[in-house]
């Protein structure tokens, strides 16, 4: 496997500890979903994608396979492709094969293990492509590296419905940041999960094999290991429910008993059945997403869906 140099723009451990303690002092308590993705969390997420209930990945891959040529035509020649939350890069391979002489591929991910594995695999598959991975939280200011060849256009690829992890304010802020990163001649290609019935949504986030539950609770194991916390994993459980008013799956970690947890020199008391919010997975109609994009100065120019209308991939351009 070729070794790819990774630009490290990761948050410091102290910053993670501050953010975690801040979230634990709030009511209801909340923990940021970006901390799911350590090496174990990234591996568990890949297993979620293969669960029969988790339709998102299969639907998005079907859209990519069917419409990738149209997507590549929208993005055009000599594009610099920046991917947010690149993970294993499974969908991206389709896009990179279809693009007309892409200048470089810049995967941005918070998980170093996922980034080096996918970077090495991509370098084998695309030997002539410049690959410049950045390990960073993409909501912060990411410094883009310079490329050997000048780009005609910058495009952000943001698949997986990861934008759904942000609330309305957070997603408009992130879409505005994307608009800034790509500039007025740029583009964005964003995967958005669509509204559907409660049963299908709740099944997707509560798989029978329990992989999603393991993924959720792994965040606590990570804090034990990296921040010296003492969460007893057996005394917490995963809960994901569809909030139909807000149109989103809300994932919680629920304390099974009354208990104390220590972290960063602080003691946090949990009541029995107390729920900590760990993730939103917002679902949209095409109209709702178009409105969100407009608020960020972006316009939806194309929207591709799968045959069952479960998922969408949307092509956006900055509004003049
Ligand atoms: C990759 C962040 C979009 O919210 O559907 C999967 C993460 N969480 N199952 C999602 C996730 C629980 C996933 N995203």
Provide an overview of this structure:
The chain is of the alpha/beta class and 320 residues long. Helices cover 37% and strands 26% of the residues. It contains nine helices and 14 strands. Helix 5 links the parallel strand 3 and strand 4. Helix 2 runs antiparallel to helix 8 and helix 3 runs parallel beside helix 4. The model has no long low-confidence stretch (mean pLDDT 97). The chain binds N,N,N-trimethyl-histidine. N,N,N-trimethyl-histidine binds next to strand 12. The site of N,N,N-trimethyl-histidine has 11 residues, from strand 12.
Itemize the secondary structure elements and their pairings.
Elements: E1 7-9, H1 13-25, H2 39-49, H3 55-75, E2 79-84, H4 90-98, E3 104-109, H5 112-125, E4 130-131, E5 134-136, E6 153-158, H6 168-182, E7 187-193, H7 198-204, H8 211-227, E8 236-243, E9 248-255, E10 259-263, E11 266-270, E12 275-282, H9 286-295, E13 298-305, E14 311-318
Parallel strand pairs: 1-5, 2-3, 2-6, 3-4, 3-5, 6-7
Antiparallel strand pairs: 7-14, 8-9, 9-12, 10-11, 13-14
Helix pairs in contact: 2-8, 3-4
Give the tags.
alpha/beta; 320 residues; binds N,N,N-trimethyl-histidine; three-stranded antiparallel sheet; 14 strands
């Amino acid at each position: 496997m070729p070794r790819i140099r990774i630009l490290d723009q990761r948050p410091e451990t102290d910053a993670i500890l501050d953010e975690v303690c801040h979230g634990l002092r709030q009511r209801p308590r909340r923990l940021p979903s970006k901390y799911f993705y350590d090496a174990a969390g990234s591996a568990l997420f890949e297993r979620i994608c293969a669960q029969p209930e988790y339709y998102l990945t299969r639907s998005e891959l079907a859209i990519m396979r069917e419409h990738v040529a149209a997507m590549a035509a929208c993005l055009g020649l000599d594009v610099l492709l920046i991917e947010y939350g690149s993970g294993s890069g499974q969908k991206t391979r389709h896009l990179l094969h279809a693009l007309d002489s892409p200048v470089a591929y810049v995967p941005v991910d918070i998980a170093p293990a996922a980034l080096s594995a996918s970077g090495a695999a991509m370098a084998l598959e695309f030997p002539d492509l410049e690959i410049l991975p950045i390990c960073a939280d993409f909501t912060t200011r990411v410094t883009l590296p310079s490329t050997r060849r000048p780009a005609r256009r910058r495009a952000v690829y943001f698949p997986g419905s990861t934008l759904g992890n942000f609330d309305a304010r957070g997603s408009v802020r992130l879409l505005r940041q994307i608009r800034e990163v790509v500039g007025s001649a740029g583009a964005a290609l964003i995967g958005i999960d669509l509204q559907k019935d409660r049963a299908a949504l709740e099944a997707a986030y509560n798989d029978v094999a329990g992989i999603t539950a393991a993924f959720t609770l792994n965040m606590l194991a990570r804090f034990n290991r990296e921040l010296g916390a003492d969460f007893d994993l057996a005394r917490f459980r995963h809960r994901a429910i569809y909030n139909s008013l807000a149109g989103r799956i809300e994932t919680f970690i629920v304390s099974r008993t009354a208990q104390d947890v220590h972290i960063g020199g602080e003691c946090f008391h949990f009541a029995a059945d107390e729920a900590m919010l760990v993730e939103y997975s917002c679902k949209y109609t095409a109209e709702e997403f178009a409105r969100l994009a407009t608020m960020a100065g972006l316009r939806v120019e194309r929207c591709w869906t799968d045959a069952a209308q479960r998922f969408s991939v949307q092509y956006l351009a900055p509004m003049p």
